[in-house]
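SAMPLE LOG
Freezer: B-3
Tube label: C17
Construct: single chain, 190 aa
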Amino acid sequence: MADLDLLTQSLARNVKRWRTERGFTLDTLAARAGVSRGMLIQIEQARTNPSLGTVVKIGDALGVSITTLLDYEQGPKVRIVPGEEAVRLWHTEAGSYSRLLAGTESPGPLELWDWRLMPGESSSSDPHPVGTVELVHVTAGELTLTVDGVEYRVPAGASASFKAGAPHTYGNTGGEPMEMVLAVSVPPVH
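STRUCTURE (predicted):
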């Protein structure tokens, strides 16, 4: 089975599992996630490959990481993810991308990402649930981080942390590729 087919099947199974475990109807999850009921039905029936933004919204609404939604097997207590198995969830023709490196569910979703933005490119995110925190460490170039309309410059070797309950954008306004490692911590759903 191809990687995309495996991810589609895993997403279908895991969205339904976590929705049922949380006691959410399709309508409840649709309202919480801000996606249509029809989209959720297509996802749970493995008939669509939703955008990264949609998967993030569903994960946030369920209180689980993207890793958990895409995981096709329950692993051992120590899970090693080989570099070639990191999941590339977003990319552009110019060479920008984000890769989900690893994630866990304790105490709430925690994700580790590898990002690359080519000059002139950016990626925006809707607000995450209140209490979500993001940490970035820039390894090459300079990140232009915009949080709630305020722009911050984060050069190579520097790190930043922020509350991600506001709209935010990762951008590269420089002349060379920008690379960073990103950690996202989402509070558990109660």
